[in-house]
Specification:
By secondary structure, the chain is mostly helical. It has 11 helices and 6 strands. Strand 3 and strand 4 form a beta hairpin. The C terminus is likely disordered.
């Protein structure tokens, strides 16, 4: 199965078959040809890409552009990560510690290779990368010690008014609340849940606060659990879509549980649904999963 990646590439690395991300977020037609156009002195000035439709697209030489491409990103290696100087106890150090447990798995090494060169807690994209890593460790790899390492990078970050950034932090708090409760640490679970609900009380205008609370309660009582999308993907036998929508459903259930449930879904029912979703996801074949390994194993060593 051929995968489609979204990557940031330099203009001169745009290749035939790549599709640009348009302003609406949809991919363009594929690139059919690329040429470098110099300035009057012979220095490359811009890249001219021709799409299948014949449309010309120009990109400044040396600039970076995001594309859909079938070319996978360069593989990261553990050796590259372990030579990066990091401060003990820093987010970067924790990420490299996780990478040491998965020297064969690009799903782990890839994002850590980006993050370990300098984690910026103000970057929504980096927060999302850490959250996705935590989700991988939680759902597919079922590696609690390293899940906690990844979650700790996010769960202490405060809400700063940016809901885009908060989405990743909120998701991490929901996972942390679930894991803490599963471990029997109900005090920690309560703290994570309280942190997750901090945005429930930021509206200072009484009328707006009341309307917001009513809307939030309706969303809690009538959550979108993506049943229609999962049924459609199942009917189409689209394994990638099935996994994607089931992960969305798991996230919604974790949020509901961390929020305290609702008038239609109590904590026991939510716990049962989460356990079922985790069991289902762990039986699905991940399209990007490498050959199974156990953390700490060296795949280069034969029996």
């Amino acid at each position: 199965m051929q995968h489609d990646y979204i990557r940031a590439v330099r203009a001169e690395k745009v290749a035939r078959g790549d599709r640009f991300i348009t302003r609406t977020g949809t991919p363009s037609l594929p690139v059919s040809s690329v040429k470098s156009v110099p300035d009057s002195f012979g220095t490359p000035a811009y890249i001219e890409a021709t799409l299948d439709s014949g449309q010309k697209v120009t990109i400044a030489h040396g600039s970076t552009i995001r594309v859909h491409t079938t070319a996978p990103p360069p593989e990261a290696t553990l050796d590259e990560l372990t030579v990066i100087p990091v401060e003990d106890g820093s987010p970067e150090a924790e990420l490299i510690a996780i990478a040491r447990e998965y020297p064969w798995d690009q799903r782990v090494l890839g994002p850590i290779a980006k993050l370990s060169r300098g984690f910026n807690p103000k970057s929504g994209a980096q927060l999302e990368d850490v959250r996705d890593l935590a989700h991988l460790l939680f759902v597919e790899l079922d590696d609690r010690p390293n899940v906690w390492r990844a979650l700790a990078i996010l769960t202490e970050l405060p809400f700063d008014g940016n809901f885009g950034r908060w989405k990743s932090i909120q998701s991490a708090l929901a996972i942390a609340a679930y894991l803490a409760a599963s471990d029997g640490d109900h005090d920690a679970a309560r703290r994570f849940s309280e942190s997750l609900r901090v945005t429930d009380h930021i509206e200072e205008d009484p009328l707006k606060a009341k309307l917001t609370a009513e809307l939030r309660q309706r969303q809690l009582d009538e959550p979108n659990l993506f049943d229609r999308e999962i049924h459609k993907a199942t009917a189409a036998q689209d394994a990638t879509a099935i996994r994607s929508w089931r992960i969305e459903r798991l996230d919604a259930l974790l949020y509901l549980l961390a929020h305290g449930g609702s008038r239609t879904l109590g904590r026991e029912e939510l716990q049962r649904m989460i356990d079922h979703e985790l069991a289902t996801l762990r039986t699905l074949d991940s399209p990007d999963a490498p050959e199974s390994q156990t953390p700490g194993d060296d795949p280069a060593q034969g029996a």
